[in-house]
Amino acid sequence: MSDDVFIEYSCIINPNTYLTAGFSIAVPGKGIRDVFPGNDPIWSGGFVNVVVNY
């Protein structure tokens, strides 16, 4: 229902700790445009994750 683009960065901080960060953009496809005509914004979002294994 949408076309998505993801950009993601991963980093190993040490053998037990990992960092992941990213950004995404979703462009509405035909299905979304048909359901919500004239109101089809481009969605964007971001995230940061830290994982610690012990």
Could you characterize what this model shows?
The structure is a single chain. With 54 residues, the protein is mainly beta. The chain has one domain (2-52). 11% of the residues lie in helices and 65% in strands. The chain has one helix spanning 30-35; strands at residues 2-14, 17-28, 43-52. A three-stranded antiparallel sheet has the order 1-2-3. Strand 1 and strand 2 form a beta hairpin. It starts with a strand and ends with a strand.
Largest sheet: 3 strands, antiparallel
Measured between the Cα atoms of the first and last residue, the distance is 40 Å
What structural category do the secondary elements indicate? mainly beta
Q: Helix content range of the residues, please?
A: 10-25%
- Which spans have pLDDT < 50 for at least 5 consecutive residues? none
What's the shape? rod-shaped
Number of domains: 1
Structure summary, number of beta strands = 3
Order of helices and strands: EEHE
What is the count of DSSP helices, taking H or I runs of 4+ residues? 1
C-alpha Rg (nearest Å): 16 Å
